[in-house]
Queue: 2 jobs
Job 1
Amino acid sequence: MPRKGKAAVYDAPNQPFRVREYPVRDVKSGEVLVRVTMKTICRSDIHSYQGHRPNPCPGILGHEIIGLIDQIGVDVPDDMRGEALAPGDRITWTEYFHDGPSYYKDVHDMPQKAEGVRKYGHDLAEEDPHFLGGFAEYCYLQPGTGIVKLPAELSDAEATPLNCGIATMMAVVEATEVTEGDRVVVQGLGLLGLYGCAIAKARGAAIVIGLDVVPQRLAMAKRFGADHVLDITGIPAQEQIAAVRAFCPPDGADAAIEVCGVPTAVPTGVRMLRTGGRYTIGGLVNPDANFTVDGNDLLKRWITLRGVHNYHPRHLVEALDFVMANRNRFPFADIVDAVFSLDQLDDAFRKASEREVLRAAIVP
Amino acid sequence: MPRKGKAAVYDAPNQPFRVREYPVRDVKSGEVLVRVTMKTICRSDIHSYQGHRPNPCPGILGHEIIGLIDQIGVDVPDDMRGEALAPGDRITWTEYFHDGPSYYKDVHDMPQKAEGVRKYGHDLAEEDPHFLGGFAEYCYLQPGTGIVKLPAELSDAEATPLNCGIATMMAVVEATEVTEGDRVVVQGLGLLGLYGCAIAKARGAAIVIGLDVVPQRLAMAKRFGADHVLDITGIPAQEQIAAVRAFCPPDGADAAIEVCGVPTAVPTGVRMLRTGGRYTIGGLVNPDANFTVDGNDLLKRWITLRGVHNYHPRHLVEALDFVMANRNRFPFADIVDAVFSLDQLDDAFRKASEREVLRAAIVP
Amino acid sequence: MPRKGKAAVYDAPNQPFRVREYPVRDVKSGEVLVRVTMKTICRSDIHSYQGHRPNPCPGILGHEIIGLIDQIGVDVPDDMRGEALAPGDRITWTEYFHDGPSYYKDVHDMPQKAEGVRKYGHDLAEEDPHFLGGFAEYCYLQPGTGIVKLPAELSDAEATPLNCGIATMMAVVEATEVTEGDRVVVQGLGLLGLYGCAIAKARGAAIVIGLDVVPQRLAMAKRFGADHVLDITGIPAQEQIAAVRAFCPPDGADAAIEVCGVPTAVPTGVRMLRTGGRYTIGGLVNPDANFTVDGNDLLKRWITLRGVHNYHPRHLVEALDFVMANRNRFPFADIVDAVFSLDQLDDAFRKASEREVLRAAIVP
Amino acid sequence: MPRKGKAAVYDAPNQPFRVREYPVRDVKSGEVLVRVTMKTICRSDIHSYQGHRPNPCPGILGHEIIGLIDQIGVDVPDDMRGEALAPGDRITWTEYFHDGPSYYKDVHDMPQKAEGVRKYGHDLAEEDPHFLGGFAEYCYLQPGTGIVKLPAELSDAEATPLNCGIATMMAVVEATEVTEGDRVVVQGLGLLGLYGCAIAKARGAAIVIGLDVVPQRLAMAKRFGADHVLDITGIPAQEQIAAVRAFCPPDGADAAIEVCGVPTAVPTGVRMLRTGGRYTIGGLVNPDANFTVDGNDLLKRWITLRGVHNYHPRHLVEALDFVMANRNRFPFADIVDAVFSLDQLDDAFRKASEREVLRAAIVP
């Protein structure tokens, strides 16, 4: 008798999810069928759900997913660490997939920018293989997905954000060239900012300074490695700059990272830097994020400004290494602070969108 | 009526090649069928032919190949530059292919070291698709091959060595971090050494010093960018070092490249370097290439010693760019100094192995 | 009898230079006395002369200077290449000097940004040692100046711009990470732009595209390595971008360099780049050079934007290497297209400021 | 009345130290007079003392020194962090000094390799300023010394090794390019090895594996960040390699560091690496440290082998940052496990040379 699986389907923006069943077929060559054990709601899922950006309907949202291998197709290689995969293995995987050659992948080692790259959580649910998103019982991993086996000691709550927030911040902090002894500013202490603080510390930053306007986030950032936090509610840019510079003698911070989504934070953050400082834009994910800077200041002070979006498959491997090496140092498990069932997805999205919870997890 | 194509088959080491016919079938998904227009005999083909290293028999040797696209399978992407491919296009391609994920490819961006990577010219001729080497009328490009279209103005003789010697040396000189103003030593002025001189100059080297024992090579190196050449026949290491250092005040060369295949050249070359100098091993392709160095000297002088083998697909793109940008500066076309037909392959191999010719080309 | 030397003194903005005599004393420890043989008028000299930026009066302008060593103080070390200095040697030197430890010099290897760094051509002429600028018969090099001996075959006209325009562009093109095969845009084809084109080619750029509005500059750029030049007079940004992209398939240029001094060129140039492209601001030397960019575009396309100002002493060594290695490739000597005597300095400044000449040289 | 100060003078190898007095004069321009508060005995002091390497006699050994500023000469700049210096400040400083331009300093940013660089603890005690070593009450810091102020919360025992072992290992681990997620082997767990383990962890290494033959060192390494330690007493190279590789699936360690002083450790360590791995020689400080490697293996596996000796002044700043940021993570204070007075120096040297103590400190 053919198998079936449940999915919470997104029919239209701002409409309740509807739980439906779809057929679960045998894997094709190159595919891996996963029985999902946990998924978390990402801010971008909320953007899609609220209709702020187009997503195919009806569809299955969600890309922060982990699960157990149910079935493995022929020609499925080892995981990215070179470990053989077998049914029952608990795995995470890149939130995107791309198979075959590509200009950006082959020439510039940027598979995340390959033409035709696809992302989990962005397909029509009505078409085979139906299960390509997180809010469902199953997910079919497609050829060109980077898979990593999860160590047994890592909890589901620690593991689920790996393939989105943590891997992205591995790329962001790497691009910022944070190294031993650096003084690093993190503008915005949402999930990305918390991971940013922790990763900067893990790479040897001497001082991490976190900026936000939400007291709970500031408190959480101290637990995620921030040495100093500043509540910038109502604080003019000039005073923010002075406050950061007071922590970074003689001439400012070595690096700053934008993960607050506010374009004007960029020129403010740039002025927190010393000559030769590096600035990375990691949070301006919405279009028309215009800001104005003084090119003469960039020139005279040898500032480097860089944008980073998505991540390379190796960053997922590094994300796992980072969490495993720092589990006792930073409270990764506390990020997931609410758990819901698939039937409670409406409630979970509401609470996540209203920021009542930090990271909402869904379990079967 | 089914098509057939000819191939010069290698049955056993040191035996004459035998020209046979194999069926030419329609391409499968991901394959490209190429009608070969030119191939050249690489030193490694000669090593296989002479039995110095194992190669499947009967087989079709040769990996330095160019040709015209005959047929393109479904799912074949654009070339690595993002240009659409069509029948009739003249192309070159990576000498190796690998499809699907891999630890070295995905995590370390070293597709050339992916587990299971295969190389053209290393398969049994009796099995489908038969044509996977150069000394034949056709070649089936497999999924995971990096393809680049060739500009019309580039002659076949200029284009054929791109995917082996030139691309390899792009990797070697890049790993040597040769940059504007460097003084660079090239030990060995065979084909790799000639390209090494030219690429070093093209990257801005101020002075390139070439070392060899063959007068014709020394003369050719001057045409390929060497500012100084030294005939080291019978010259003790200490004198070679002094001669190079005289060209590189105040304290030696910035970089040196080994492409002579002689292990003892390494410690000699290292002593030609200034403190902080870089040394790349590019020619020790045979096993047990032992050499002895003084680790205290490496330590005190901050020497970097690095091995490089094969190349990344992007190096093939860069190789083409390099030749196109420097065609009037270096006599690339003169590298191929003898042309043979497929029937004359025995003669071509003999002349190539006895170094009567610099690079023997085979045309249909 | 004490020696005296002449200088063309700058008394106030827009006033005629007055030739006066000052005493020439014996060198102190660490000083080198140079008999100036040529100096050229830099655009920044004109800015000072016209009163657009403050400069001590009465003073001796000019920092692009070469000359013959007249006297060497005790404790003067070898030149930066490690060659001993002697009276009679013809030399160039860094346009700035700084002696002793400094945060930026010692910790960040940015001596050009050391606190208290001083520049030749920016001191009062009435105070000892009087001769610290170019438009005079002598110049006293101070401790902390990087000196390089000039090869005999290099003409004065080729050598004089080394320590300003060429060394600066060595730093700019290096920061742009221009390498083998790159497609590079240069916005602005004044002196810096011409050198930028040539250096990009010398580092292996496959295609250099120069943009300007002055036909003579566009023509000159072709001689300095530009493969394509675009007269952008009246051309909207969108069309400039399309024109550049047509030369750079499949997705734009690898790098772009701003040396036109126009802030709005930056967002235009950024959109000429491929994903992962690098942009360097090298010409926005005047304050308040504001421009507006879309941070979301920088983020999605992984753009790197970097400012560069002045240069490291090693760039002067590299500048000399670059010119020596490329003298037959680019017409460096043609840059200096008018020669004046010290008495004709007013005329020289007028012609230079009105761009009647490309680079005006002054000889004793 | 003129001041005098005591010093434990080294008259000849293996002779008892003799405590003598020398005059303490006012500082000259650029000098800083320091009242020494602690110094530690470095392994290289023992080598000098035992006559294994030449050192001027009579002299004052010792370069691992901290102290309080007694007097500051004119023209002494701020410390390397840009903080003003004043009498009474507790400071550390680079173990070497070099003033003025130099080829290696100015062109290659390697001041530690400048021609004529001098090291504290390597001068004749009979000549002015007498106090240029550690085992004395005073030390005259010379122009060209990089100085850093010490934070009050850092104990003398934590601070004294900064300018030798810790700063050196900052350079070694940086050259090894250790980054987030790396698996790192440290061969030799003496003082350098302990710091190497800790710095590798602080830079984000996922797994650090320490090798030694002394059980106490293996135990100490676990406290300094080693995840795994291997007692290699009597273990053949092949088994060491297998043991390390078992910790580093799928194909070996990312990096290895030699700080054991045994040349044959190098080829063994190289075979512990994955393709593309990095190996740094940090401990082969004695001449004729010959080892033999297979260049073909280096080539095929893209191995990088690098020597590192001494450090850049910025590494001292980074060393301080590292210790301040990781004081609660690693037991730096426990390194100094025995304290002696200047009069007990013979006893201290004996215990240090017989490895009865890990790091012997001398206090006034």
Note: The first strand of chain D starts at residue 3 and ends at 9.
Job 2
Amino acid sequence: MTYVTFPQAKSLDFAAIGRLCIDLNANEINRPMEETMTFTKYVGGSPANITIGMSRLGMKTAFIGKIANDQMGRFIADYLQRNAIDTSNVVTDQTGAVTGLAFTEIKSPSDCSILMYRNNVADLKLTPGEVQESLIAQAKVLLISGTALAQSPSREAVFQALNYAKKHGAVIVFDLDYRPYTWTSPEETAVYYNLAAEKCDIILGTREEFDMMEQFEHNPEKDDQITAAKWFDYSAKIVIIKHGKEGSIAYTPDGIGHRAKSFPAKVVKTFGAGDSYAAGFIYGVMQGWTLEKSMEYGSAAACIVISSHSCSDAMPTAAQVDAYIERCNRGEITAS
Amino acid sequence: MTYVTFPQAKSLDFAAIGRLCIDLNANEINRPMEETMTFTKYVGGSPANITIGMSRLGMKTAFIGKIANDQMGRFIADYLQRNAIDTSNVVTDQTGAVTGLAFTEIKSPSDCSILMYRNNVADLKLTPGEVQESLIAQAKVLLISGTALAQSPSREAVFQALNYAKKHGAVIVFDLDYRPYTWTSPEETAVYYNLAAEKCDIILGTREEFDMMEQFEHNPEKDDQITAAKWFDYSAKIVIIKHGKEGSIAYTPDGIGHRAKSFPAKVVKTFGAGDSYAAGFIYGVMQGWTLEKSMEYGSAAACIVISSHSCSDAMPTAAQVDAYIERCNRGEITAS
Amino acid sequence: MTYVTFPQAKSLDFAAIGRLCIDLNANEINRPMEETMTFTKYVGGSPANITIGMSRLGMKTAFIGKIANDQMGRFIADYLQRNAIDTSNVVTDQTGAVTGLAFTEIKSPSDCSILMYRNNVADLKLTPGEVQESLIAQAKVLLISGTALAQSPSREAVFQALNYAKKHGAVIVFDLDYRPYTWTSPEETAVYYNLAAEKCDIILGTREEFDMMEQFEHNPEKDDQITAAKWFDYSAKIVIIKHGKEGSIAYTPDGIGHRAKSFPAKVVKTFGAGDSYAAGFIYGVMQGWTLEKSMEYGSAAACIVISSHSCSDAMPTAAQVDAYIERCNRGEITAS
Amino acid sequence: MTYVTFPQAKSLDFAAIGRLCIDLNANEINRPMEETMTFTKYVGGSPANITIGMSRLGMKTAFIGKIANDQMGRFIADYLQRNAIDTSNVVTDQTGAVTGLAFTEIKSPSDCSILMYRNNVADLKLTPGEVQESLIAQAKVLLISGTALAQSPSREAVFQALNYAKKHGAVIVFDLDYRPYTWTSPEETAVYYNLAAEKCDIILGTREEFDMMEQFEHNPEKDDQITAAKWFDYSAKIVIIKHGKEGSIAYTPDGIGHRAKSFPAKVVKTFGAGDSYAAGFIYGVMQGWTLEKSMEYGSAAACIVISSHSCSDAMPTAAQVDAYIERCNRGEITAS
């Protein structure tokens, strides 16, 4: 069954708005960061990673965001362009803002953390007036990311992008991507997450992220069906709730909770799993695949990324995802 | 024809959320404020004035807001209580915020201005967690005022109040009351005004206020019908657009632009006209009167206030409004 | 004995730098402010009051400060000019700052308090580049006030004024006037008070103000002699420490603690006592009087002010002070 | 001739207060940073580098500063300890501040730049109450660095450290180290630099740094003698003014301008030259050497650092400096 219909006549497959930053990944891993002496630079930020993933999968993509007027900002713009992502709506900050940084610490494959630099970052300075209506008018999908709601004026830029997407009929995907830093309070977070989610067609998040959004509501059992039903009353057609190791469930208005099998992986680190999953899943849905098949595809894409050192740079092509699934099916890959 | 149906079973006629402040009105008028030596203190703030007006007209009312923990804040709470307004959701700030002030300057009946003190004011510190769902659940009407959207956390408190009002079926009135100070940019203002207006049943504002809200849209002729139609696509049933001396028009989804006659007045100053108009109009609609009769009632209430020295303290009772209309009909009142 | 020598050739007797604000004095007194309905407007701020006092006593005076670009600011400039104070270095703010306010509450002659509005005030926005060296070069005395040290850029403007005063040989008077609001921490306060006091010839303050300045030092008995001795090691020639009802003592490097008799007064309120005392005392010292006679003169001036409704507007002329002392000497005035 | 006498009985040779941060040095050099993919982590910050230099030269040293409560902060503390620097007054921030970062770009040996991260950094959060008087009481030398004056509360901590150093007789060295970011305005900078410099015995800076300090003064020819003479009127005994390629001159109250010969070097980058020069020079003066010999020693230390990839980690031992001078004298080292 088809839960979401995409406006096929539009020329751009996918646009995302939000965070563009730099990951500085520890080269010497399996140790505390205090003992890491060198770091490698990658483009990062959840919506940036997803867009790179979509582009690698062959989609025509664009990004809406803001970069610092410095070497890091220029590196980001150049990397996006080299990945065939349209950067005509990537604006350069003129106020002296810096590029957000994420230093990664990989103590073990299952013990990873991030040291964030998010003060005065360029990506949160995108204004509503800088968002190009003409770009969104041509997009089949607009993806928004929760971190871009954390501060003004980026928050207002996202709401304006939602207005344009609604007006022009784009399918809207909301990747919750909640990160407490940069938010003033959980109450503030919940209010804006809910205002944005009301307008979205596909919502992806962890059970904990949905709990945060329900702090003013009554869902004492943290019941997925209650959570999903609320959004079906607004605009949603698919609500994916991720339960960590228990897997993800895609809820639909017909009451079904769709599940998919997962794949083994030789895990290096956990970063980037959600972003590659989102890219693979959205790609599948846009191909007209079942939700189950789309979720499987997302899972395979995620396995490839968590087996690698980087996030953005490891985003797979369709051929790589297909090959990974085949190798798993042949039993050639087992869990680490 | 009835455009709005009120939930009659509810026990509270009217609740408002937003600004509570102090007006310091020049005692020596018809001169620049530099030459005014003494000032008289009144409760002020648009939603406060409207609530006082509704209470004087005999409605059961409550206020949702925040006051400074000082003499000015205590004066406000006491005045509301003396006017039979429920203050159980008027919270006292504990952070050292001050009470907003508005010094009025009356150079002539038609040349009035205000000197505002809006830095670190208590009313903008109301949080979403402080808004009582149980109070809104009992209200037939919730009135929100644009100034409360100007800053966090008051902005989020208003959106949370809107959520509760929607959930419990209150009729929502939006008094635009746009004042540029305290807002960061016109773009930011437009984004939040539009997000709030989407959820409202009755919207009242000047043509200029609606223009501000349309800065990302195409209404080059500033056409009232285009303006109103947008909101009928969301939740609105009545959109009142005020055209200054040309009078106000109440638009309804049936395409009608309702107009009402106005009354003469011996004008002292223009402050408070909009607030008393809103109180009179909402009162009329709640009585089941036609929009035309409700607008006339609002106009008469406004005439009484602009003929007086204060705003809040001059809000009329129903008997006073009726008497004013009768005296006008008998030709006993002529314009100053 | 002469403790301080003034540069007699200079054309300006007295310049002060710092706070200019508005006092809003309760008209209905001997009650809580909640019950006060009207307020009268006066120029206020400790250095402004002292300068008005000096001008009334016949001195040639000037003020260095910043006013809001509004009706309150223009009232202040006009009042200073009408009191023959040179305002050529009173700068008008262009950033939208407001005029500081002080609402006075007079519950009884001995129970007075102030409700301050000090957010975004113009007086704290004076910059070092706006301080006119040429004006200070002509001044016999420069008075600085502690409140002007509370925030940047006013803080730096005061230090720059001190540089000019030192360079050109003005006698520097420091009126401590410590008010905790607007300061970030007691530690910060102590650091800047000490840096400023190092450069001053005459320091006036309460025992509590000197205690605040000594928080990083060892004076467990709060011994006046230890306090004064520290400043004699820098630039000070007179250190006046006020002990409330026990009276004030003027310490000098010769080890003497000078005391003066006080006068009775019919007290209305306590505000303004310190400012009128400072004006009377400095005036006396500039006349070449003994410290004891100068302190008496300050006390008499203070009695006149606390017997009146206002501070600035009640500052006496020399004839009024002389008359008050004579009447006291004749027993015509007794304490209230 | 001896210009400065050190309090030899004290147990600690050298203490510094101020910036502790992380340098992230480009591994792939001689290209724009956009093309640099990996970075190596070092301890940085001018006073940190000088203290490491002093420790390497055999001095007993301590640091007064504040580090972030994260992996970067712990790395800094550990590195200082491994370099035998007393960290008992290195405080850990508890407010969520981050570690300052400096990404270095080395386009060529003579075209180097830095990308700074200075928002919400831990080092600027040191408070005056955290500075240990007992530590400064035992120090022969206290070095302050201009960057620590850039913001509160670090600014006040430096002034408090100066108070303690004055009280206990430490020789105070001021390394101007002016960096415009983090300062609000040049005026503010000049005011605090001058207030600090008044209390210092040895002042080191570039001609441009002294120009910045003289913006309120009259030195139209930028005459070194006028500059130095001002500080001799306060506390200074040596004022070193650096003229880039024309070399440095050490001015003394006897009117002499001391110069020293320089050494050739195979330059990798210019970073760290000033810090190693300062360490070598102060070390020499503390040995009782002439200013000329001390300056030579500083120059040789600087040559070693600019021939290396890092700043802090390349600080030489005395044996290394001696060897470098000998090799230069034997003609074994020539300029790159």
Note: The two ends of chain A are 36 Å apart (CA to CA).
